């Protein structure tokens, strides 16, 4: 109310300052308020009466509409009488500034309720908090403690409790620690404590436990290689897995794209640098493997070279080939395909074979090199009568040749075979040429190249299969053959070599020899050899 503010004018500022000093303890010499029973002066009483009268007059003139104005006026009069009666009690002491301390009589509010002091709170140390006397502000209102704020929904502000999970448990901060055994070395299976460690290959390692699979030394390089989840030094990995050339024994270089490019034999899987196909590196004339630089092949008199493994079972002269010729004749007799006429068999050099081929009017020749011929013309052939002797540096020496004049007594004058080839290869070539002789001696009409060469390849393949299954050949293959071959057994390499010769027949891509063999082999497997030959005699084609 406006009139009440004029009662304490001039004294409210001093009381406010003391309240602040009491809260923070800024002025220790300041004395607290006390009461000695002195009364206020009469002049001040008259001032209060005039102030009340003026205030009532101002309210009446403004014409404010107040709910329950009569009751409000009655309450104001009661409050004025209470103030008047309070003047009769002892007056509080006067402070230095002339203001009198207001006694702590509980004030009456406008609604008739008496102010109730707040119960002093207890501190944690057990001492009771002593509140100071509520100060009076300049507007005449008594200090009120701040009540909790009310929100718009009518709820009283409550301090935010600790967060809770959905199950009602109070949230607890997750402790940050590393459990024992959380880092186990993949090398020694021991726990990794404090200090340096490596994290690679989805595992952790002691630095001294991360070792190369090849040399078993620790890997301290920034980069390393892996194979099968095992680590390697880059140099050790290259030594172990980077392909080396089987010819020069060096690491196969990468191409312009950074890729390892090499050549490999389709059967022997001999890897070599692409450059060796153009640097005159020789190949074995039998197995077609390239000559390694640390192993020298045996040169033959006609310019061919033979590896040491193929040389072991090679047939070098005509006389050494006669036992093999008898074995193949027996093989044909077992198929009811006996040759009635005796056909000469001669082993010759490359040059003599090429000259005999030029003298034939008819014939089919397997390129790039002819290894056998079935002759029908009369010719004089230079045949090898004595095998060469290999001296220093594996050079063939003292080979003896002699002329052999062919006379035409039948449709076939001779069978020529290139000398210096392993027994199995020589036998397959001989079985092929004997089939040419059998067809001519049995009076078959002239056949197309693919049919005649195809059925001859079928007989050569059948003989190879029979030899590899039996595991034995003639008692004396050649004078240079190993003791194992002489006893009728076959070395592991010779078995491998026989598989290579079969592979050559199967994978031949020429339309005459390759396609002809596959058509003839299919017919024989379906109808049998005898029915296939009868169909060829009648129609000149393979049965389908």
Please estimate the helix content: 25-40%
| Major sheet size, sense and barrel closure | 3 strands, mixed
C-alpha geometry: elongated
Q: Work out the helix count.
A: 13
Low-confidence stretches: 1-40, 64-69, 90-104, 160-180, 473-487
Beta-strand proportion: 5-15%
Overview of the structural elements:
α9 packs antiparallel against α11. A hairpin with a 5-residue loop joins β7 (298-299) and β8. The strands form 8 sheets. Strands 10-16-11 form a 3-stranded mixed β-sheet. A two-stranded antiparallel sheet has the order 1-2. The protein contains 13 helices and 17 strands. The N and C termini lie far apart (129 Å). By secondary structure, the protein is an alpha+beta fold. Among the domains are: 184-241, Ribbon (Cysteine Rich Protein), CATH 2.10.110.10; 243-307, no CATH class; 308-345 and 360-377 and 408-470 and 490-539, no CATH class. Mean pLDDT is 75; it is low at 1-40, 64-69, 90-104, 160-180 and 473-487.
Characterize this entry briefly.
With 544 residues, the protein is an alpha+beta fold. It is built from 13 helices and 17 strands. Among the domains are: 184-241, Cysteine Rich Protein; 243-307, no CATH class; 308-345 and 360-377 and 408-470 and 490-539, no CATH class.
């Amino acid at each position: 109310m406006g009139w009440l503010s004029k009662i304490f004018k001039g004294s409210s500022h001093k009381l406010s300052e003391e309240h602040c000093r009491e809260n923070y303890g800024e002025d220790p010499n300041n004395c607290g308020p006390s009461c000695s029973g002195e009364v206020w002066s009469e002049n001040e009483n008259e001032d209060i009466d005039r102030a009340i009268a003026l205030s009532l007059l101002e309210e009446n003139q403004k014409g404010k509409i107040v709910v329950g104005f009569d009751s409000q006026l009655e309450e104001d009069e009661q409050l004025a009488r209470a103030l008047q009666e309070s003047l009769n009690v002892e007056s509080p002491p006067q402070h230095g500034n002339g203001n009198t301390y207001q006694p702590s009589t509980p004030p009456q509010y406008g609604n008739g309720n008496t102010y109730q002091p707040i119960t002093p709170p207890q501190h944690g140390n057990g001492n009771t908090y002593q509140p100071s006397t509520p100060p009076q502000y300049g507007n005449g209102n008594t200090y009120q403690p701040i009540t909790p704020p009310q929100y718009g929904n009518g709820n009283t502000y409550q301090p935010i409790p600790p967060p809770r999970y959905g199950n009602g448990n109070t949230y607890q901060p997750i402790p940050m620690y590393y459990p024992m055994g959380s880092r186990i070395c993949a090398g020694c299976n021991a726990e990794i404590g404090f200090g340096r460690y490596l994290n690679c290959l989805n595992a952790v390692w002691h630095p001294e436990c991360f070792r190369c699979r090849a040399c078993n030394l620790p890997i301290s390089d920034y980069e390393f290689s892996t194979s099968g989840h095992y680590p390697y030094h880059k140099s050790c990995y290259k030594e172990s897995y980077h392909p080396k050339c089987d010819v020069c024994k060096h690491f196969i270089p990468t191409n312009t794209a950074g890729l390892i490019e090499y050549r490999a034999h389709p059967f022997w899987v001999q890897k070599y640098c692409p450059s060796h196909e153009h640097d005159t590196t020789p190949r074995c004339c039998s197995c077609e493997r390239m000559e390694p630089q640390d192993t020298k092949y045996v040169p033959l008199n006609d310019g061919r070279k033979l590896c040491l493994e193929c040389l072991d079972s090679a047939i070098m002269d005509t006389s050494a080939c006669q036992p093999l010729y008898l074995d193949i004749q027996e093989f044909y007799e077992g198929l009811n395909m006996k040759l009635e006429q005796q056909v000469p068999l001669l082993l010759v050099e490359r040059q003599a074979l090429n000259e005999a081929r030029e003298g034939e009017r008819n014939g089919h020749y397997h390129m790039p090199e002819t290894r056998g011929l079935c002759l029908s013309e009369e010719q004089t052939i230079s045949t090898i009568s004595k095998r060469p002797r290999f001296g220093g540096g594996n050079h063939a020496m003292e080979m003896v040749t002699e002329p052999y004049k062919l006379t035409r007594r039948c449709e076939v004058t001779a069978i020529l075979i290139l000398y210096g080839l392993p027994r199995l290869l020589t036998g397959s070539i001989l079985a092929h040429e004997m089939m040419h002789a059998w067809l001519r001696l049995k009076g078959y009409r002239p056949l197309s190249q693919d049919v005649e060469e195809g059925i001859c390849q079928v007989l050569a393949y059948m003989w190879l299969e029979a030899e590899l299954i039996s595991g034995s050949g003639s008692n004396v293959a050649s004078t240079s053959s190993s003791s194992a071959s002489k006893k009728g057994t076959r070395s592991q390499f010779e078995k491998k070599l026989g598989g290579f010769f079969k592979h050559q027949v199967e994978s031949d891509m020429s339309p005459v020899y390759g396609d002809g063999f596959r058509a003839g082999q299919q017919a024989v497997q379906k109808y049998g050899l005898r029915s296939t030959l009868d169909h060829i005699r009648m129609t000149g084609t393979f049965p389908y």
